[in-house]
Task: structure prediction
Amino acid sequence: MSLEGKRILIAKPGLDGHDVGAKVIALALRDAGADVIYTGLRKSPDYIARVAVDEDVDAVGLSMLSGSHNEIVSETLLQLKELDASDIKIFVGGTIPKDDHAGLIAAGVSGIYTSDMAITDVLKEIELELRNA
Amino acid sequence: MAISKNSSAEIVKEVEKTPPNHPDPITPSGIEVPVVVGPDMIDFSKLEQPGAYPFTRGIFENGFRGRLWTIRQYSGFGTAEESNERYKFLLDQGQTGLSVALDLPTQCGYDPIDPMARAEVGKVGVSLSNLGEVERLFKDIDVSGISTSFTINGTASIIYAMYCAVADKQGVDRDKLTGTIQNDILKEYVARGTWIFPVKPSMRLIADTILFSNKHTPRFNAISIAGAHVRDAGCTAVEEMGYTLANGLAYTDELIRRGGDVEKFARRLSFFFYVHMDFFEEICKFRAGRRLWAKLMNERYGVEDPKAQMFRFGVVCGGSSLIGSQPHNNIVRVGTETMAAVLGGAQSIFTCAFDEAFQIPTEHSAEIALRTQQIIAHESGIARTVDPLGGSYYVEWLTDQMEKGMLSVIEEIESYGGVEKAVEDGWLQMKIAKRASERKQAADSGKTVIVGQNYFRRDNQTEQVGEVFKLDPMATARVIDKYEKNRDTRDTGLVEKSLIALENAASKDKSNIMPYLIDCCHAYATVGEMVSTLKNQWGEFQEPVRL
Result:
């Protein structure tokens, strides 16, 4: 498995300060060969979209544990669209209730990863998504 | 719950798949445990009685016979009115203290109309943007008759000011107030992320809160130095206690710098930890931490008053030890963890609800969590005698090992240049991120056994929780509506005057900030306004982003 040559932005939108998942996944993606950029805490969807475009990334991973994922995901997708960058894939991780998964996928999210998934499975799915891109 | 006909056969089949190398002789903190610990491995002459320095066996000579621990469930969501209803329900059910969860805008110092705040209003706790909201939160609850704990850090001084102002409004003398604010910013930089100001002014603000509280609300704990969050973020039990005691020492130094008398303020320093699943490590973590803190206070600062050497702590049982697969198993986990907390001598216990790993608990799951404590307190008999495990070869041996480990964690930070530097540089954050990766790998690889997740898992196992808690989608609108009403009806001249006085006090290192914050609260200034005013003087923390 390799993510060699892929550029991925890991972002913490909103005010949620739980960054363990974001950092664990960022380290794992880097170990798998990806170029990883991590935003740090408290970034607005607007900021995240601009960094994604400026850094020319293949994908953005949004990590959210405070329950604000529906609003933040739709806002981020909107901002990317406005920057004509809807080709950038969006992955979501954190505390995402099962009831919300279908809606997020329908909105345009490429994958949802919660803490009970093994990291290797998460990496496999991301690799598959990006290979087809 | 319906159980299908063949499910027990499936379970038996899964049980045959015993995890390799279990039980693991190495504890999660990396201590290698002998098969048998014997009397030759313990120096029993050093074992003191409960209530005697250095308090390995507990801070009270009569343990829980004198007073049971405080049962304190963390709760709060949506609007002040909704949370007020939940509190009254919990008090009616026999809960003895309140614990207030605040939403992220309140915790990070944003008003509900701020663009950064909109999506987060009322999500993980209650929104308290101004004194009116706090008055509604405690409507028909006499603040002199309860003890209230606020999980608040970046804006702890402001929420504490609000609580003092509510006491004023209810006609209660401030010196009758009991409760706790977390007010521990150091671990926020490392793990929980609700920092606002840079390290130095934050340390000053915390010292001001504590010194003011010692004088005006002497029964209130103005800090609860917390290891819980770094633990959930990835630390081992030994590191959790080591980092927390190191933070405790950093606050002690700052308080002394600001003129505090350690014999006085140390009496009101309190601590807060997670209890995870390794039963004996958790028990010994508390015994070792309690002993080490007393020694540090005595040997480093010359503290003589036993009350100022005493390590008092609350715990939360659950957190990242709870999982989403087969969530009802979490009830058993929390029960086990609660026993460890009791045997470790906790002063207050919060038990997570079984569904808390993935949602705000329902009234049903919150009640089971409360009953878990009551069963252990009143049916099990483990609170009957003080430190019933004292003198156990294994418990005393492990306590000694863990104490040594904690001391080396403290020494490592000190040799780096202290907690403040470790946090500003992002050194500690990076260490914990690495630990989190290791913990995840251990779970993924099956090195750590998690029943129902990586072992003993059936195909197609049901993850059904039952009832799902839903936040009222109109809560945000109501919060904003009340915010606007407050803004439009208050005396703006008074607000401006109080904020100018606050900024002036912030610019002078000698002033204590607290009286100015209380004045702002009485003027119905908002949390966002007070925070912006302080930012004008102090700036904001620049997060070191390192991987």
